[in-house]
Amino acid sequence: MNRPPLGKVCIELGLLDDDAVERILRDMREHGQGRFGELAVGLNLLSEQDLARALAHQFDVTLLSPERVAELEVPPDLVAMIPARLMRNRVILPTFFDPDRRLLTLVTSDPTDLPALQAVQRHARADHLRIFVAARSALAARLDQVLPVDNDDDPSTSGAEVEVSPGGTVVLEPDVELAAALRRLERVEGGRTQIVSDPEQVTSLLLARLADRVLYREQHAGSAAPYLPMWRKARPDASIAAVRGFSPGRREAVAWPDARDFYHQLLLWVLSVGERQHPGLRHRLRTGWTLARELGAELDLAPERLEAVSLAAMLQPVGGLTILHPEPSGSSPLDGPVELLSRFSPPFDLAGLYAAAQRRLRGSSRPGDDLGLDILVLLPAVLDRDLSTLVDAADLLPSDLHVHPRVLAALSRVLQRRALRAQLLTGGRRHARVVVATSDAIVATDLDQELTGAGFTVVVHDDPGGALAAVRALTPAAVVLAEDLGTDENLRILAEIRRDAQLAETPTAWLATSSDGLPPEALSLKPDHVSHPPHDLGALIARLRIATAHAGVAGPRSTSITGDSQLLPLQEVVDLLRAGRQTATVRLVAGEDDGRLQVIDGHLSTARLGRRAGRSAWRLARELPELRYAVTFGPDEAALDDDTISVGPG
Asked: Are residues 368 and 467 in the same domain?
């Protein structure tokens, strides 16, 4: 569903006719300034209340009448958190803050003013916003009543209204569902691209100098055209381009790293949103992407070759997706990836890379002729195996598959590194499996990524029977039940777990789909963790870490984990122990010197190396290029000394 332009909304509501809308758009094109709503009010074609009504309808939010605005109660402590000048000049009034959900409720006259909304959100330290719309004059009058008298000398009101950055990429995607999916994936992946669905939001970001690149799909060129003069005037140095798809194919439109990351996220959207019946495929896709990148780095592939191989590896499993071709269009399993890539203008000849991989499998080329091809032919065999239990690459390969010994050695190193990371996060345990039951593809993607990154092995099922069978077969460390699967289905799974003597103590988490309380039947079954939207996955992971501390659930600890700084740097070892909130002793050997670190509940407390102790010993140890270490979990009765150090960002 595309978000309709404001002019079309005004026509639908009977506020403007076609001639009036065309007059406003013509004025925008000719003068390159002013925004649709402001021009409409300035030309006396709309009243402020009519404009507020249209904006509320366009963004599907609640409209407040002037009478209701005049009655708004505003907590003084909330107003004190946000600069008065920001609220007054941008006509934004915060009305309520929910500290548990980090949710800020506010009223604005302009929901397209993203820089101001983001600034208010930042000052309130809120994770989410609930927005109401009101007429500008009514809201400004209420602001005058609740805010202190504006004083230029007051430090709380001085300075820039919004934080200005060098710029970034903004993508205009009027399809609201696609924009929401991309925005969520962008947040999950930690990217910086802003995805908006209304041209006025692009204008706000350019005027505030928070963006210097604008992308939109060619099919939306008509809706973007009236705004182009204004965008170019607002930011003359901005790069503005229509593209076939959000890909790095048009390099002049956006810097390569940003484009590559966004391209990756768009492909994830195609799989996670477009094909909801393949929950396991997302895990294969992400595993293929990350494994190819790790292998390519181990083998010192050139950067562009590494990107090409990574993209090709990521897309190998998508051949059978019905979103690409409802009817089989060919006999090759690579038809799907090739068709998908052709839609998004890839920067590499990936079709040629796939063809070369096929020739390699037929024996037309030898192992080692192209190490990138060896990665491609190796990965399908790897993706079908449980990598959490293997560290020897030779155990993964079928007898008829041959790759260069360098590739096998690189794969062994990658597997060892992954196993070491998982053990450090989970306190020396390697079988912390979590069964996730959800039919929502994006929920599955979020949980898969976050839990895998926290060191858990994730098994996703989108049907109740499969989820329950997995719980019985795997005896997992924990079970996560997403309510989108259906309340009755979740109740059945939870009841079966509680009735089974071997599973009854398995920790369970219930992810609700609304803020309403759980049904009485669920409360009687006592789920160990309940989360309401917006879900705090950090709290969920912390709860699961406590669950895996039980040896009977997570498996026995390794007596000692060994490694060296070439396999995993000491800084990362300590960072992983910190993330897992572990207590451990790290014994060090560096040439003729030995030493040890003590980590207690995730905090590095003491350090010694040779004759050095405390902070200087830690600095030296983490910078040594050749260092061996052995990690033992649990408290060490042999105290080191009183040279206590704290772990900072470095």
From this structure: no
CA atoms within 13 A on the CB side of 131: 25
pTM attached to this predicted model: 0.54
* 240/203 same-domain check: yes
Q: How confident is the model at residue 247 (pLDDT cuts 50, 70, 90)?
A: very low
| pLDDT (0 to 100) of residue 158 | 39
Domain finish residue from 230, 260, 290: 260
- Percent pLDDT > 70 in the chain is 76
How many other CB atoms sit within 10 Å of the CB of residue 358? 16
Q: What is the pLDDT of residues 292-340, one digit of tens each?
A: 989 999 999 887 788 788 878 877 766 555 444 444 444 455 555 666 5
Comparing CA positions, the residue from 572, 375, 535 lying closest to residue 450 is: 535
Structure token pair of residue 134: 């009101």
Q: In the 8-state DSSP scheme, what is residue 625? A: S
Q: Share the mean pLDDT of the chain.
A: 77
CB 313 within 8 A of CB 376: yes
Length of the chain: 650
Q: Give mean pLDDT, residues 223-233.
A: 86
CA 584 to each of CA 164, 336, 388, 572: distance values in angstroms, whole numbers, following the listed order: 44, 48, 22, 14
Whether 151 maps to a domain, the answer reads no
| H-helix or E-strand spanning residue 521 | helix 520-525
Within a domain: 641: no
Give me the pLDDT at residue 212, please: 81
Whether residue 571 sits in one domain with residue 543: no
For position 115, what pLDDT does the model report?
87
Q: In terms of domains, do 130 and 48 share one?
A: yes
pLDDT at residue number 298: 92
My answer on whether 492 and 351 are in the same domain is no
On the question of pLDDT at 57 being above 80, the answer is: yes
Residue 61 belongs to some domain of the structure = yes
- Stated as kind and residue range, the H or E segment containing 124 is helix 114-124
Q: Give 197-207 pLDDT, tens digit per residue.
A: 888 888 888 88
Residues of the domain holding 568: 561-633
Beta bridge partners of 170: 194, 214
Residue 281: per-residue pLDDT:
67
Rg (CA), the chain: 28
Residue ending a domain, choose from 195, 228, 260:
260
Distance between CA atoms of residues 414 and 61, nearest Å: 49
Residue in the block written with tokens 């399809």: 175
Does 623 share its domain with 522? no
- What is the spatial distance between Cα 285 and Cα 319, in angstroms, rounded to a whole number? 12
593-600/194-196 β-pairing: unpaired
Number of structural domains, the chain? 5
Hey, is 613 helix, strand or coil? strand
Q: How far, in Å, CA of 168 to CA of 154, rounded?
A: 32
Q: What is the CATH number of the domain that holds 443?
A: 3.40.50.2300
Q: Is residue 593 part of a domain?
A: yes
For residue 623 the two structure tokens come to: 């910078």
Estimate the crossing angle of helix 136-146 against helix 48-58, to 10 degrees.
Answer: 100
